[in-house]
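Sharing a chain and its predicted structure for anyone who wants a worked example. Both blocks are below, sequence first, tokens second.
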Amino acid sequence: MYEELLEVALEAARAGSEVVERYFGDEGLEFRAKGANDFVTRADRDSERAVVEVIRRHFPEHRIVAEEGGEVGAEEGQLVWLVDPLDGTTNFMHGLPIYAVSIACVEGDRTVAAVVTEPHAGNEFTATAGGGAFWNDRPIEVSGRPRLAGAFVATGYPFRARATIDTYLAVFRSVFLEAKALRRTGAAALDLAYTAAGVFDGFFEFRLAPWDIAAGALLIEEAGGVVTDLDGGRRER
């Protein structure tokens, strides 16, 4: 039912991935600070432009909400695309090849199509509502580990939300004392994708934006997992 949306999301994500790969390793890459520990580069902006161009070519009437450019084509009653053109910008700037392009299509309050690409590694994670989740066209499932004890868990540090540090450290401590290992990759979309694939048993982070989590959350749900807020409340699909 949502295959056409997924095809466009994948085309757009590949266009964005091609752009960021051209810039990776460029020591003269232009960047500016959007806020404390929050950066945007020319690669972010050009990737977003490429992604938006693909979506607009196929669906000019749809609304697009992108991290760097705000909203495009906002009309009532239309599908909404959530775009993160380069998740893991700080990794990217420092030459660490762990970053992603994340695109989700939302119908009402439900994410219906999602793509997360890992350009440097050549990985593509895809999902549609009711259609399952895939890693390079292979079906994936969450690990199914029933409890935190012995779990392999990913997290993201709240560098841009320092007011939450005490709460975060309390959560981190409780997880640290039970889990087998904790990892921080620096790209939430990839953490969610690898959780969907059963590589990580779980992932937690504070104050992520909709474009950070929409695609990865659908991947997890379609892979048989559960996405909640910090109080355990299920997210709206």
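Comments welcome. The helical segments are 3-23, 42-58, 89-93, 165-178, 188-196, 210-222.
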